[in-house]
Amino acid sequence: PFQAEDAFDSEPKIKKLEPVLLPGEIVVNEVSFVRKCIATDTSQYDLWGKLICSNFKISFITDDPMPLQKFHYRNLLLGEHDVPLTCIEQIVTVNDHKRKQKVLGPNQKLKFNPTELIIYCKDFRIVRFRFDESGPESAKKVCLAIAHYSQPTDLQLLFAFEYVGKKYHNSANTLNGIPTGGGGGAGGGSSQKTPLFETYSDWDREVKRTGASGWRVCSINEGYMISTCLPEYFVVPSSLADQDLKTFSHSFVGRRMPLWCWSHSNGSALVRTALIKDLLQQRKIDQRICNAITKSHPQRSDVCKSDLDKTLPNIQDIQVAFVKLKQLCVNEPFEETEERWLSSLEGTRWLEYVRAFLKHSAELVYTLESRRVSVVLQEEEGRDLSCVVASLVQVMLDPYFRTIPGFQSLIQKEWVMSGYQFLDRCNHLKRSEKESPLFLLFLDATWQLLDQYPAAFEFSETYLAVLGDSTRISLFGTFLFNSPHQRVKQSTEFAISKNIQLGDEKGLKFPSVWDWSLQFTAKDRTLFHNPLYIGRSTPCVRNSSVKAFKRTKKNYSSTLRGMPASLRNGLLSDQESLPRRNSLILQVRPDPPPHAQGQDGGLEQFFREWRCKPADLHGVLLPHLSATHIKLWKLCYFRWVPEAQINRGGFVTAFHRLSLLADEVDVLSRTLRQHRAGPLEACYAELDQSRMYFRARGPHDTSGTPEFLSSSFPFSPVGNLCRRSISGTPLSKFLSGAKIWLSTETLANED
Amino acid sequence: RKRIYTTFEVEQVKLLDRFSTNNKSLTGTLYLTATHLLFIDSQQKETWILHHHIGSVEKLALTTSGCPLVIQCKNFRIVHFIVPRERDCHDIYNSLLQLSKQAKYEDLYAFSYNPKQNDSERLRGWQLIDLAEEYKRMGVPNSNWQLSDANREYKICETYPRELYVPRIASKPIIVGSSKFRSKGRFPVLSYYHQNKEAAICRCSQPLSGFSARCLEDEHLLQAISKANPANRYMYVVDTRPKLNAIANRAAGKGYENEDNYSNIRFQFVGIENIHVMRSSLQKLLEVNGTKGLSVNDFYSGLESSGWLRHIKAVMDAAIFLAKAIMVENASVLVHCSDGWDRTSQVCSLGSLLLDSYYRTVKGFMVLIEKDWISFGHKFSERCGHLDGDPKEVSPVFTQFLECVWHLTEQFPQDFEFNEAFLLQIHEHIHSCQFGNFLGNCQKEREELKLKEKTYSLWPFLLDDQKKYLNPLYSSNSQKFAVLEPNTASFNFKFWRNMYHQFDRTLHPRESVCNIIMNMNEQNKQLEKDIKDLESKINKRKNEQIDGVLTKELLHPVHPESPIIKTSLCFKEQTLLPVNDTLRTIEGSNPADNRYSEYAEEFSKSEPAVVSLEYGVARMTC
């Protein structure tokens, strides 16, 4: 074919079309002269190149520059056109001429030569390739290879094993394996390591950090002797002896006995547990546990149990809702859903579920914060809904978990170590019946809080989206396993089969997702930072001279016209000082607070009073739960949809402006601190210290929105298949006779 | 405090919180003044409601605790009182009915409102927005467009302004002829001229074409418009109505342009519904946002079935059509609907706003409203129901325009000089009847009412308070013709909570990004000042050193904290107070609309002001 000759003429070009491979990555199949489609209705933007399938990704290698794309957020592990195998949801092969179509499963035969390959990705992307000019047999082989390698039958076939094995072999002569661990935080300014909670000391530090006095770290599960789905170390009431715990553990589903999550400064604790399966023992054990938790409370207060299975949607419902959401955002043509958009969105029930988790968590916040009662989360196995609720409660109550290292440690603590089944729920092995997007639901709920309290979080929504994406890259040990034990067991087996000396290590050490430098450059990692976030004052502020600046009652009232209602409540003396026209009114007192209304009334009262106070961004955060506040996370679900993009618009333009401002504040404060003489402008030139992606070029930088910004920034939908052509404008839509809405009222009403 | 003259007062009245599930209420005294309804609760919190803002008053069935009275305001406030005695309730009800519906313009608040200004100040206020100046800014008159004196005495069209711009080659007989062929005499005139593209947005009313009538003068005038554009021979004629409505109008001798009779036109319907559909859609929206706002599910389907956002989208799409025609095809556009004062005003003004960044500034937005709405005869008094008139003439057409602009500010947070509070304040005053700008239905009527002598203009008051309405994210250096390209996929349209729930404070977020940024800005300025001060001190000392004068001071290095903390203290006073000042009130001494202070109290409580200060101090003292 013509194109083929053309390509052969320029030989140096062909040489360049080599895949970039990671250690342990091998190309299993490839096909040349493939067209990657950019738009559905025109081939003018199509790219020519080579499609390869490796044991890690499918990769499209091309020399053609991407048309129309103004910005590309580069992942160091993946090329611009790459899709990790674990991100593939469905593989569809098509033959135009024979009008045949087939969804490819593993080990399936393909009776026709495909002319087209469509990949549906778990992150809502759709990628399409055409094989018109490529060898029919090699095209078929690549399709089959992709189907085979993206749907492995065994965990050890996931790429991370090959990668780590290679790393160990390469470093066989050195003392240790590859460095892993918490990684360097998010890069930029933060150098704190993320606690992984694999060790005794991490748990111990967390107990001390929260000031939990009646609790201790217990190591009965060392070597996973008690339970294979619990971490080796966890925290229990001090009054329960190891021997008791061992005895009790048999009665719990999966031997998942109560685990401490977090303690409030008032002493109430958050605990999660599986159900007691042994009905005979149930009451007795339950009583013992509750007593122990009560004993660990400084006020010996009661225990409040929350049965998550009864109050929240189950994981199947959540999966169904997510599939519907995906349908809505990706599959259906937009023209058809446009007019029914809101009811279709409502029909997915996704927002309803997000709200349900936020609502329930907020109620538990009330119990811990206001009623000062310890909370026990109960769930059949205690490793699904509990993860979401336990994390959300902590995000709302503890500002530490709103920082990047804190949030990461929370995920380690409540998800990775507590045995959330990432392997099954993310469906890395494509055994779809166990799939459920609980982790994404948690990120979504966190986003709702971030959206409502934009200055309370250290991280940005880009960070949350990227974190969600990282669950679909089969390289990080963080999101690969059903439990810490599974990692140890599987990787030890693998090490033995590959002749890797483990030494003292418990299993292979996989790269951690928290080592963000594996995926992004330092500059790109600054996009994780929220410019609106103002950190807790650094310790040096805590000296007496600065304390004077803290909000006092006096300052407070000076900012208001009168005293806030909360301070004024019931103070008759205040009222006397005000002009009164009628003495009768003096007898009127505010309505008595509805104490006698039981828990629900108390809850509403709590919410109401909390809302009357100024929001303390370093204190408790409660979500707004009305319909206008629970929103669809557009950056996450719409970033790959070209039609959804707002060019030079969207929240990111505000983000850009804010970054410039925050950077300016940083530069100025730094200059002031260092008492540096010299032109102010020079201080802006220092690039190294900024925590912002967008940097101010000088004082009062008012540069306009950069051309490359769009509402899906830093992601770019270009290169992903869209339903309509990119050139489809409203004008051409009108002119091509788009349907005109018919009047819904009688025509006689026409003005 | 100014003494309040009350005409009526009732004690022990309960004010219910409509979003509370356990019927929480405040008890207090209700007063009626000549202009306001006032409720003072037991904690001395005042709620002021202007009589003109009252849309409807409803007396519900008697309950054990008293007689419920529900007042629905045009600014979307809903208050639910319980009056202990039915007789009192009845009296309040009757008084309010009377006070809220005036028969004569002269009885409206604007004619008694006195902000303590003298005549020359007032006149200067009215001269603030000068449309002749605005046309000059656009670049007309020029070789293709001229000022026509045809309507100088309102002889051709009563609802148009005196000064109209038409193509230079359109002679007076052509204009007169065309006006006779257009509904209410509203012939095609210039609304916006795009200097770079030399293309124009023109506006008119529907032609009286019936099934076959034609008018050569009208055809000439349209041709003159397309000839006035040297870059493109053809022009678009946009009928903003749904096609069916336009066809139905033909039977009444009206209708739309026949493409065969006009040379070089491309005719297009854009399907915006009429005022009656819009009115009932808003009614449905308000029903939804009552109690249904509390649960996710009913809300979305209710919002959808109200159709409100669909209508907003239709207006936006039409405006985008205009902008694209001019930017992409260099083509002029003529816009009309039926009479050319509702949908046409929406589409022309929004189209110009997309094209010209001037209209996205505070002053420019005022000019835009003055040009496309006030001067071209949008019937504000009828649409807002200022007087006791035909309820079928009331329609939220202007509210829709403001909402479209709000959606644009949401999509392009950096491109507008003004913020949401500005839009809300304008909306407040189209109904308040406190200023003369929006009274009457056309310029002729306004002149007859002598509004410029008897009332005040809103704009200078807004400009004086400009600080409250500035968008801190605004990037002013964008070019004049930076076109906005909004995305109108339906998921980009959302419920405007701060408009329709503006009085339901429990539903609002605790912190406003806007305030945080304003504080950040202030902080920056202060820090820069500190640096300059310190630098000058350092330089001073250096000089002293060079002079060889070893002063005692120099031996002790300056304690870095003291000056900074001092300035920071002042800084604190400065930054916190403006937040409190961010009241959306412009009444000065007038206590009207106390809700602004509620609003501001809400915002002024936001913590970040203090936190960011600590942060600043922390950095400085480390």
Automatic annotation (TrEMBL), chain A:
The keyword Cytoplasm does not apply. It comes from the Eukaryota. One of its GO terms (biological process) is phosphatidylinositol dephosphorylation. GO terms for cellular component: cytoplasm; membrane. Residues 197-637 form the Myotubularin phosphatase domain. Keywords: Phosphoprotein. InterPro entries: MTMR10_PH-GRAM (IPR036004), MTMR10_PTP (IPR030573), MTMR12-like_C (IPR022587), Myotubularin (IPR030564), Myotubularin-like_Pase_dom (IPR010569), PH-like_dom_sf (IPR011993), Prot-tyrosine_phosphatase-like (IPR029021). Belongs to the protein-tyrosine phosphatase family. Non-receptor class myotubularin subfamily. This is Myotubularin-related protein 10.
Automatic annotation (TrEMBL), chain B:
It comes from the Eukaryota. It holds the Pfam family Myotub-related. The keyword Hydrolase applies. Substrate binds at residues 274-275, 337-343. The keyword Lipid metabolism applies. The active site is at 337 (phosphocysteine intermediate). One of its GO terms (cellular component) is nuclear envelope. Signal peptide: none annotated. One of its GO terms (molecular function) is phosphatidylinositol-3,5-bisphosphate phosphatase activity. Residues 510-544 form a coiled coil. This is Myotubularin related protein 6. It comes from Myotis lucifugus.
